[in-house]
Design a protein that fits this description.
With 800 residues, the chain is of the alpha/beta class. It folds into 3 domains: 143 residues, Jelly Rolls (Sandwich), CATH 2.60.120.10; 103 residues, Arc Repressor Mutant, subunit A (Orthogonal Bundle), CATH 1.10.10; 471 residues, Alpha-Beta Barrel (TIM Barrel), CATH 3.20.20.80. It is 35% helix and 25% strand. It has 24 helices and 31 strands. The strands form 7 sheets. The chain has an 8-stranded parallel barrel with strand order 10-11-14-17-18-19-22-23, surrounded by 4 helices. The chain has a 7-stranded antiparallel beta sheet with strand order 9-24-25-26-31-28-29, with helices on one face. Strand 25 and strand 26 form a beta hairpin. Helix 3 runs antiparallel to helix 4, helix 15 packs parallel to helix 17 and helix 20 packs parallel to helix 21. It holds the Pfam family Glyco_hydro_39. Keywords: DNA-binding, Glycosidase, Hydrolase, Transcription, Transcription regulation. This is Helix-turn-helix domain-containing protein.
């Protein structure tokens, strides 16, 4: 019982001010009423009602009330016990509802509310159930909010030297309560005592013993002020060998004895917080809070069984933003006949309207000689000709994108830096103006006015500097195109959602200072987050199933705050991964994810560009198999993946929106046709982040998800015509239409014959069923069950 009781605990508080302090235990601060400002080290955050954040071990923090009637709940997590469970002292979290958005925050909030509703069950049998909820909260924290040791450290200033400082700090923080020596640390770091002693003195300005005693003293002072422990106990618990040694170090810093300091500070604190509520008053407020807070039952799968009802006479326009753009690759890719064939399939069956291409300017087509510049556009012409002749619109990325095949975010199978061929403003200005004139002369004004031109913020263009070359290049391209027609649309800059978030404001502020503003703002969305802790940046995979929507909402809020809203907002690249070798991309699970993201995007942005169209994009020496984990909608051989069918089913949707849920979207044409598209997308669990993406095996996929439960969806459409309807049901799941599972029946063998590839092609088609529905009371009732990762389209037609 003692172990369970001490792993996690909580208390309510109404203090208006908490002076700077820190502690080894982790703390979740949850604002139940009022508001506060918290400073953690050098960072400040404003928390309102419903906000919470986690304070990591040994982080100095202070709190002050900003809105009256402050009521907080403080959840303390025993660091030592958690470290024992996790098998490491390297424990760091990023959990802050004011700075991030993630579906896991709502999951954690519900758990914390369940804890609070057990306020009076801290003793006896109720404590058993309360502790089970504590462990549930810890599971969510460690699964979705922990920064692991293998999460990549980023930024140029994170050098091996900084990493060593980080190791020293963590070692001392984890062991300061013990009798540790310089020799112990030197052995751990494989350094000599003499070298490490000089290194610590240089980097910290203190000797090793002085640094350790400094840490011990900070913790001891915290206990002196916030506990009733005796001075002797505090000294020994914080690593001082004797009370005398503690007194000596303390006097050197504070010029008084520990007992004298404790008395004086407590007296001052009493005077400052006379208005702090008594324990009895706090309990009364807690009772009031709990009385007004609906007791949250344990989550059950029944939420998927809720009936969803819509009215056939109440509709809005359904704008199909999800199939606006498909990414294909460098413009040269359009010269390949197989790629052309696949592009036409995506146009005809998925409804894509814009084809995004890049690397328009390449060295072998450019001549710079004696102060003159010339570019041969013939290769570009052949690619664009193909699009225009087939009623497709070019979406042209003007920058110099690298050419690589990615294993993970930070490792590649092959990479080739694409050099910027223009070395000064004049050469770029000349070629861009020639390019603009060439396009108009070849394709006509009306045609080019319907295209989009984008400039990505390549790091080499230094958008972080308000005088960086990005703004010169954007201005040159903007004026070159706008001098032809003001209706040509030019924008950028490919903001990386979740990854650029520490730079959003600076980047936008730099752009606001320029004379030229974009017609549209573009974003990239891959499920990776950049997290800052202790001046270090960590890149980690996100487990947020709503990543695209949540991170888009955060970025849109920044644009509003900066008053920098463009006419259109585009996500020109999106996927859950940037890896070209992740077998999940070939699976039914990815099809469900694609459909879920498309549904969530409705009404959120103007255009979306899926990354990317074809596995031909990254064909390389390791691609002998029919599938190799690339994120194309079509395989190298043109076989349709579940992600292809996700777009295909979405394209069934009619022009009028009836409504949408977490799992489905309903539409009608207003003339007796109703289409329902639905999915059973599952969320990754923590195991997904434990493996390198390239090392994930098809056989292990089911282990990477929170559950594999089926769902039962029910719909009612009111005010429909009475009579007979025919419903066609199209679906793809692990048993029907999944290319990966059909290949699995062939033992995932490589180097298949042409006939065997054709067999897989025929097997990778949706299952189709039909049924008759009779309506007598003006209500069309439909229900359907979906396996884990299944996608469906229900196409319903009135029979005249």
């Amino acid at each position: 019982m003692e172990i369970m009781r001490t792993m996690m605990d909580f208390e309510f508080d109404t203090k208006k001010v908490q002076n700077t302090h820190f502690h080894q235990d982790l703390e979740i601060l949850y604002v139940l009423d009022g508001g506060l400002e918290i400073q953690i080290e050098s960072e400040k955050y404003e928390l309102g009602k419903g906000d919470f954040l986690l304070i990591n071990a040994n982080k100095r923090h202070s709190i002050r009330e900003t809105e009256e009637e402050l009521l907080t709940a403080s959840f303390r997590i025993n660091f030592s016990m958690l470290a024992e469970y996790l098998g490491t002292n390297q424990i760091l979290f990023w959990c802050n509802t004011t700075a991030d958005k993630n579906e896991a925050y709502e999951q954690l909030r519900k758990i914390l509310d369940r804890v609070l509703n057990r306020f009076y069950d801290k003793e006896g049998e109720g404590a058993l159930y309360l502790n089970s909820i504590y462990y549930e909260a810890l599971y969510v924290l460690t699964s979705y909010f922990r920064i692991k040791a293998d999460d990549s450290r980023l930024k140029d200033d994170v050098t091996p030297d900084n990493s060593r400082v980080f190791e020293i700090q963590n070692y001392v923080q984890a062991n300061y309560q013990k009798q540790i020596s310089l020799n112990d640390l030197a052995k751990k770091l494989y350094l000599s005592n003499a070298y490490l002693s000089k290194y610590i003195k240089k980097r910290f300005g203190l000797s090793f013993l002085e640094y350790v005693n400094n840490i011990r003293l900070f913790h001891a002072v915290d206990e002196m002020l916030y506990t009733d422990k005796k001075i002797t106990r505090i000294a020994l618990d914080n690593g001082f060998p004797t009370t005398a040694s503690f007194n000596k170090v303390f006097k050197e810093v504070y010029n008084m004895t520990p007992s004298g300091y404790r008395t004086s500070v407590r007296q001052k604190t009493k005077e400052e917080v006379q208005d702090t509520e008594s324990k009895e008053q706090i309990e009364q407020r807690v009772k009031k809070y709990l009385a007004g807070n609906t007791v949250l039952q344990d989550e059950v799968a029944a939420k998927n069984l809720d009936l969803f009802t819509v009215d056939a006479k109440e509709t809005t326009e359904l704008k199909k933003n999800w199939n606006a753009i498909i990414n294909i690759g460098k413009v040269d890719a359009l010269l390949d006949s197989e790629m052309q064939q696949q592009v036409l399939i995506m146009k005809q069956e998925l409804g894509f309207r814009y084809v995004r291409v890049w690397n328009i300017f390449v060295q072998d087509m450019y001549e710079e000689k004696d102060g003159s510049w010339h570019y041969n556009f013939s290769r570009v012409d052949r690619g664009l000709d193909f699009l225009v002749e087939n009623q497709l619109k070019p979406y042209i990325e003007l920058s110099f994108k690298p050419i690589h095949v990615s294993y993970t975010l930070y490792s590649t199978l092959t990479e080739k830096e694409n050099d910027i061929i223009f070395h000064d403003r004049d050469s770029y200005d000349k070629v861009m103006n020639d390019f603009a004139s060439h396009l108009i002369n070849r394709y006509g004004m009306d045609e080019v006015e319907s295209w989009y031109f984008e400039l990505w913020k390549d790091d080499r263009l230094n958008m972080m500097d308000e005088k960086g070359w990005y703004f010169d290049c954007f201005e040159i391209g903007y004026h070159a195109l706008k001098r032809i027609s003001d209706r040509i649309k030019v924008g950028g800059a490919g903001f990386a959602l979740g990854y650029d978030r520490y730079q959003y404001h600076q980047l936008i502020q730099n752009w606001k200072k320029q004379k030229v503003k974009p017609d549209f703002i573009s974003m990239y969305s891959y499920s990776y987050l950049l997290i800052q802790q202790d001046s270090m940046y960590f890149g980690k995979r996100s487990l947020d199933n709503n990543f695209v929507k949540n991170q888009t909402d955060i970025f849109k809020q920044v644009l509003q705050e900066e008053e920098f809203m463009a006419e259109e907002l585009h996500i020109t690249e999106w996927n859950y991964t940037i890896s070209n070798r992740n077998c999940i991309s070939d699976s039914c699970a990815h099809g469900a994810y694609v459909m879920k993201t498309c549904i969530e995007s409705i009404g959120n942005v103007d255009k979306m560009g899926y990354w990317h169209g074809s596995d031909l994009h990254t064909e390389y020496y390791d691609t002998e198999a029919v599938l190799y984990g690339d994120n194309g909608l079509l395989t190298r051989d043109g076989i349709k993946k579940p992600s292809f069918y996700a777009f295909h089913f979405m394209n069934f949707l009619q022009s009028q929106l009836l409504g949408k849920t977490e799992n489905a979207v309903l539409s009608t044409d207003g003339r007796g046709t109703y289409t329902i598209v639905c999915h059973n997308c599952k969320r990754f669990n923590y195991r997904y982040t434990m493996k390198e993406e390239k090392d994930i095996r098809i056989e292990d996929l089911e282990e990477l998800y929170e559950d594999t439960d089926a769902v039962h969806l029910k719909f009612c459409i009111n005010h429909v015509e009475n009579g007979d309807y025919i419903m066609r049901v199209f679906y793809v799941n692990s048993e029907n239409g999944s290319v990966q599972d059909v290949w699995g029946d062939m033992d995932y063998l490589k180097n298949l014959s042409k006939g065997e590839v054709e067999y897989i092609r025929r097997g990778a088609m949706p299952k189709v069923e039909m049924r008759k529905i009779h309506v007598e009371d003006g209500v069309l009732r439909v229900d359907t069950k979906l396996m884990a990762h299944e996608i469906k389209a229900l196409d319903i037609h009135y029979q005249y």
